[in-house]
């Protein structure tokens, strides 16, 4: 709003108020194939200019030609085509001008006149009138992206040594605008995400400054495998300018990049004032502009009109720089020095220290707020100021908004102190606070420190198949904490194809992937403010395992045939085929699917059912086949007397082998015939002796030498004996065993008898099962992320050969096992990889045969993958003598989880390959003296680091070392603090250490004042590299000049030290009272006789009242030997004493006056004033009389009036002339002159005239009313 009486200044169009261009490019039309030229002129030379097309920077190439000559800048587009048509822009600082390029065909160009060229020096207002050729100035944001091609594209810079693919570039921004710096890091060769830190200046870590105006972002591009890190600054201020640094580090690499940010001042359209352009204001607080409410504050400076001169001719005045530094806080020194070209920072700090800082004393505050406060989340903080005026009004502001009192914000006022208390601090309280008193204010910043969120239960590795559901679970220490989920170092968000689902349940956090794909495999991490948990997800191709395949069946007529198989996935569907054609279920053929078991049942088998049957799982290239054999019952017609017969396909002497899986039902269905009906006897042959699974049956022909190894015994099987059931009908006998076991294996004999004869058949039953669990595996060859697992075959293979093994591992503290292979392992060892170093693991193994998978083996002994350490660094030779070599080195950069057990040192002759150990065992120190070496030998030395994993790579000296001592001139290295006078107090120890050099070991000599040192109190200790002068308790006599000399043959070096032993001074001498007048006493004394061997710093004067003899200090650090003590009390007597002070302290005793000094008391009589007594008594009077009432019977009624009087009158109530004082139905109250009569549940009898009478010594008053009690109808 303009000032009253002043005409508002007209505002120029947007884009010209702060334009950096004196000549701007214009939109043009160019014929196809011709070049297009655009010219721009800046206000001053040296301005960085960028050209853009469709918002993207243009770099110099064959297509685009960029020329910059002083203030003139040209863009030439060669061979213009339709693709070049569009919107272009030129940017200088915070000014941006847009223009269009239109391409026309060559034929049309011949008939169309060329646009007239505007004069080069056209005024700015004429350029505005062109309308479309101008664009408004953009001051909102800026970008610090480089001008070159995008990373990964043609021409992208490659850094074969560093980590950066694209480094942050210098940037410019207007005050209040935004800017983003980007850094790209190649991640193709990185196992883990790199660590990136942003700094301002040399040491300010920007991660601690993240907030509303500064954010850090990172992302990962899986296609290009490039990490993108961004630093985003919003609402830039002048203090944001300066040098920045980006550091990126990985496990074994480090890289950094420096860049600068320039912040330009901007004049807003609403704040334009001609005088403000020339007004010089002071900068304080890191470049922030300070001003009050007056517009005319500041002096007018027309030097800005000279800005168009060559900047090389202008140099800022030195006084201005020091004035800015003197007013600025120390945190801004480096930025100001960088802007003004000050390179000697130490000299600058020394000069500033010597300058007297002119600080304006506050008139409103005695004590201001501290610059910053820090409080932990959930705690209480108190912000306190002290005011000069105890009655002043105070306002508290938070981020510029006034704070209102509430449950969390409490204002306190005690005397001159004003306190703001914030209870239960949260992150929302992290802000800038101000205390405003009148026109003055003091500011501070409150930083709320959030306690780190710790991980109480880590993530667990998972192995799943494609399409399965994955759920990671992690537990943290704080409920509702903010966490980040990352995959391979890249943060996961809900917006990514909605694949990831995040769930919070108290302190537990879940990451859910509903259907896993191969691309989901990787390392997943949950990151909190106090650490992170890491787990690996392995996604395997979906494979189907067959736990039980279908087997061939031999079934008789009218029987039931059942084909059954079991697969690994219970959700897999399948199709049954008969001779390659799909089998359609009907009333006789049934197909069932229960869990992992698929079953085909055929009732009443007929000869047409004999065929090949197959089960084909849906979605898998797998086929399970079996054959159904139809057994024909051959029954010949015989007379009535028919001998019994067993009808099998092969009823010979050789027993048929029937294979059954353990746990399944064993059913032996034998057709029989005979008349009369035969008796069936089932027997099992029990063998003793050498067990051989392939031996012949007992009634088979005997082989030579085999009959002596077998002893047979037959056990009769009853019809119902435990799991055994025998069912016999006229034409068949069925033998069933429920849940076959290993003990059921053997030769079963079926015997049929009747009076005519008998028949007998042997059936061999073999029970197969899963193998026994192998023994616990053994771990060997443990490396950094791998190990070798070995195991033995199971003791029992289940009757089937072992097809392979399955290996699993888990972390020691976890309960979840993760499978390492899906293809069976044929060998008895396997090299396991992809383990995390420093984490304890356990292994177990399964054996697999045709029946299925065994139980798991016991877990192996826990082991921890540990790799050997890296090579030591900075190996150097420190000293050499005729027989020894002193070596030193630094620990390796990579130590690993195994730590360091020590170092081994070896040496060998030059040209020889045999290394000799310099010591037996290992040394934990990083330095060593190798002794007993041959003189003049040329030796190479190497050092290895060792841990539990073994020795690491060695580091070897670059050149051979000649074992020969070198003569070195003696030299004293006197420390800087010993080159000045050394002051010590009496009784303190003196320990002067002076290093020296020289070979061979020099001779050291100490003298004092030219005489050799004598006495037991001074001791000298010498070593090969230094000498020490030691005095246990210093005395004044030890003061003097000491000289130390080091000598080697005829060469020597000397150094002189001055030692000053100081003590407390003696008290002053001859203190006396010179004069006493009024309330004052003049004292005088002489300096002390002994100053303690140092300068007297001053005196302390004290006084004591003769009555109490309590001493009070009057003057401190007083330099003169006379003073005046004032403000004494009249009529009292005083003693005075004086202490002397030096650098050690005050004297032990004081000089005291011998006689007291009395202050005379003049005679003054006090007459108290006389006051006249006042009479405040008053007769009673009713200020509010009673009023007539009409009430309903049965409801409590109250009569009220008010009376005044002094002394307090006595109150009496009457009804129809009768005193109501003793009636319980009436209650009378009197409070502060208000009189109340309560009538409880009145009846018509209670109606009448009520009187209230008030009486005191001054008189009497009364008032009355009529009460009517009505009975409700």
UniProtKB/TrEMBL annotation:
Q: Does the keyword Translocase apply?
A: no
Where's the Ig-like domain?
A: 154-262, 375-437, 451-545, 644-764, 970-1058, 1180-1268
Domain of life, per lineage: Eukaryota
Question: Which residue ranges are recorded for the region named Disordered?
Answer: 1-45, 110-163
Could you confirm whether the keyword Nucleotide-binding appears in this record? no
GO cellular component: a single term: M band
* Keywords carried by this UniProt record: Actin-binding, Cell adhesion, Immunoglobulin domain, Muscle protein, Phosphoprotein, Repeat, Thick filament
Tell me which PROSITE patterns the record gives: FN3, IG_LIKE
* A Pfam match: fn3
Which BP terms in the Gene Ontology apply to this protein? cardiac muscle contraction; cell adhesion; sarcomere organization; ventricular cardiac muscle tissue morphogenesis
Q: Cite the Fibronectin type-III domain residue spans from the record.
A: 773-869, 871-966, 1067-1162
Entries under InterPro entries matching the protein? FN3_dom, FN3_sf, Ig-like_dom, Ig-like_dom_sf, Ig-like_fold, Ig_I-set, Ig_sub, Ig_sub2
One GO MF term on file is: structural constituent of muscle
Low complexity biased stretches: 112-122
Role this protein plays: Thick filament-associated protein located in the crossbridge region of vertebrate striated muscle a bands. In vitro it binds MHC, F-actin and native thin filaments, and modifies the activity of actin-activated myosin ATPase. It may modulate muscle contraction or may play a more structural role.
Q: Which family does it belong to?
A: Belongs to the immunoglobulin superfamily. MyBP family.
Protein's UniProt name: Myosin-binding protein C, cardiac-type
This protein's species is Ictidomys tridecemlineatus (Thirteen-lined ground squirrel)
